[in-house]
Structures are given as structure tokens and as C-alpha cells.
Amino acid sequence: MNDILLTVKGLKKSYGAVEVLKDISFDLRRGETLSLIGPSGSGKSTCLRCVNYLEKPSGGEIVLEGEHIGRVRTGDGRERTMTDRELAPQRSEIGMVFQLFYLWPHLTVRDNVALASIKSGRLSKAEAYELAEAMLEKVHLRHKAHEYPERLSGGQQQRVAIARALAQQPKLILFDEPTSALDPELVGEVLGVIRELAEEGRSMILVTHEIRFARDVGDRVIFMDGGVIVEQGPAADVINHPAKERTRAFLGQVG
Ligand code: ADP
Ligand code: MG
């Protein structure tokens, strides 16, 4: 039984002449939480966005359960990049939670969570609402189902965004600094939900500056700097006993 869910191999990304990701390779095992840490501008967001082809990689491959993300083999045996339409089913297998929540202000919380399942025709309206309420329960906001986002705190809005990602029933969830836009007193409730998801065995990649959280909740940590992986390993090893000077210097600044 192959327990590798995601393989990122030789991932590269350039913007013009600037190489932002240089040969990034790592695996994510099923049920694992991987934290991606590193200084601002090191390429963490770009890496996440390449995993679900929000950005088209300049090189390398992304393989989710044996399926090449964003690539399709044509009749003559060659490969090309998928169109957005072809990508949609693959993207729906990968949930994404951003720093800003991007909820629809004119929709209730429940409608925000149910929208994608209804629009895609994947579920009936009744099924989508049932799923939405179950996912809101997971983030402890079922009682807010009929509120509008503006009536919620930032922490609650981010939990709604997490429920929305869960409603896709994704194989993998990517979090890009999900607590960075929050007032400090609201960070804990969002991290608490992410911790519960980790404990129930979700497969997740989390970009975060919450180093203690990465150590305590993450199974593994990748430290990136300048578009390369400087070091990766079990969370406690990398954070408590970094092998590389660059990692030590970074942890010294943020810790
Ligand atoms: P991080 O998330 O670690 O802060 P990013 O992945 O956002 O880093 O950015 C890595 C580098 O790529 C930065 O130098 C940034 O300026 C550059 N970059 C990101 N997106 C673009 C873009 N769309 N066009 C040009 N440069 C970009
Ligand atoms: Mg970023």
C-alpha cells in the first residue's frame, strides 16, 4: 500500500528572468501535516499555488495519488498543460485556505459553504446544505449558518473559509498563512480548528509563521529560503535541532 499522497518533484517556477522556485522536491504522506516555513519572499505561496496549478510551474511535476496535476497526454503521446476546464476536477481535490477569506458578503455563511457544490452540480441543494452544516459543525459555527459574513469576527470568517474548503471533500488541503491577517486574540480559535483537522488525519500543507504550532501539530517541516528547500524533516527535529545555519538564523528571528 502506497501511503504517499502527493509528490512534488523538481518543481521550478520563474517569473520572467527571476527564478522563484528552484528544484523543489518533497512527498506528503496520507494523513500528514506538513508545515512550510521560511522568510517572506522565499517562495512558500508560489509553491502552494503551483501544487494546485493556480500558477503554472516552469518545470517539474506534481503527482496526487498517481495523477499528474495539470498535465494531460495527447493522442500522439506528447504532454500538454490542461485547460482551466480540464483542471477543475483536479483542483476540487485540493482545498485551499488563504490569508484573506474571500467570502461572498451577500451570501449567508451556509450559502458560502454550499455554493461550489451546488454550482458544480455535484450535489443537490438539499445535500449541499446538509454537507455545509456538517462542515460548519466541524469548525464549531453551525449556529452561525444563517448569518452574513460581516456579522462574524475575522477568526469566525476564516473558520467559515475552512468549512468551505472541507465541503469540497478534498484529498489535500493547502493553508497559506491562515492566521496572518487576524488580530492576535483570534489566532487561537483558527489554529484550534486546524489542529483538530490534523488529529482526524487530514492531509495538509500549512504555510505558517506560528513556529510552535508547526512543531506541535505538524508531522514534518520544510524550511525554505531563496526558492530552495534548505532543510526538511520531522517537525521537532527541524525546529528544535536545525542542522543548517540558515534555519537556525531564521528560527532565532521568529522564535
Ligand atoms: P512567500 O510566500 O514565501 O513570501 P512568494 O511565493 O509570495 O513568497 O514569492 C516569492 C518571490 O516571487 C518573491 O520575490 C515575489 O516577489 C515573487 N513573485 C511572486 N509572485 C509573483 C508574480 N506574479 N510575478 C512576479 N514575481 C512574483
Ligand atoms: Mg506568502
Automatic annotation (TrEMBL):
Q: What is this protein called?
A: Ectoine/hydroxyectoine ABC transporter ATP-binding protein EhuA
Which cellular compartments is it found in? Cell membrane
Tell me which SMART domains the record gives.
AAA
PROSITE patterns xref list: ABC_TRANSPORTER_1 (PS00211), ABC_TRANSPORTER_2 (PS50893)
Which positions carry the signal peptide feature in this UniProt record? none
This protein's GO cellular component annotations are:
plasma membrane
Q: Which InterPro entries match?
A: AAA+_ATPase (IPR003593), ABC_ATPase_HisP-typ (IPR030679), ABC_transporter-like_ATP-bd (IPR003439), ABC_transporter-like_CS (IPR017871), MetN_ABC_transporter-like (IPR050086), P-loop_NTPase (IPR027417)
Keyword annotations: Amino-acid transport, ATP-binding, Cell membrane, Membrane, Nucleotide-binding, Transport
Q: Does the keyword Transcription apply?
A: no
Matching entries from Pfam families are given as: ABC_tran
Q: Which residues form a coiled coil?
A: none
Its placement in the membrane is given as: Peripheral membrane protein
What terms describe the molecular function in GO for this protein?
ABC-type amino acid transporter activity; ATP binding; ATP hydrolysis activity
Which family does the UniProt entry place this protein in?
A: Belongs to the ABC transporter superfamily.
Does the keyword Transport belong to this entry?
Answer: yes
